[in-house]
Amino acid sequence: QVQLVESGGGLVQPGGSLSLSCAASGSRFIIYVMGWYRQAPGKQRELVATISNSESTNYADSVKGRFTISRDNAKNTVYLQMNSLEPEDTAVYYCNARDASGALYWGQGTLVTVSS
Predict the structure, then answer these.
(1) Is 74 helix (H, G, I), strand (E, B) or coil?
(2) What is the pLDDT of residue 1?
(3) CA-based radius of gyration for the chain
């Protein structure tokens, strides 16, 4: 069973920066894709960014140019650097990972609040 442990998050002012990280452990298979999703109050969970083990990336239009996803394959860790944060970025951010068996795993979520 894969476990995803997230860290980072918190309160930041508009225009500020924040970094999230997520470490995966316990996988018997190569983890192909890792990513970040978010869910704002009253809204559905949405894609933020994903990165494959070959470092191919995909971003939601709303975060392009502001957020950067990266990963350390040796550590099975994915990072999300968030710059120029806006109040609309306020949400619970979830890490996920899909391994070579096709199984999908989710982290417990970490709250990001952008407010003055």
Answers:
(1) helix
(2) 81
(3) 14
Which residue ranges in the chain fall short of pLDDT 70?
none
Q: What is the rounded distance in angstroms from the CA atom of residue 66 to the CA atom of residue 12?
A: 15
Residue type, 70: S
Residue 116 has a pLDDT of 95
Sign of the C-alpha dihedral, residues 47, 51, 53, 56?
positive
Long-range contacts of residues 67-71, Cβ cutoff 8 Å, at least 24 apart: 69/35, 69/36, 71/34
Q: Which of 40, 35, 38, 39 is nearest to 22 (CA)?
A: 35
**Residue type at 71?**
R
How far is 80 from 31, CA to CA, in rounded Å?
A: 17
Q: Report the C-alpha gap between 6 and 12 in whole angstroms.
A: 18
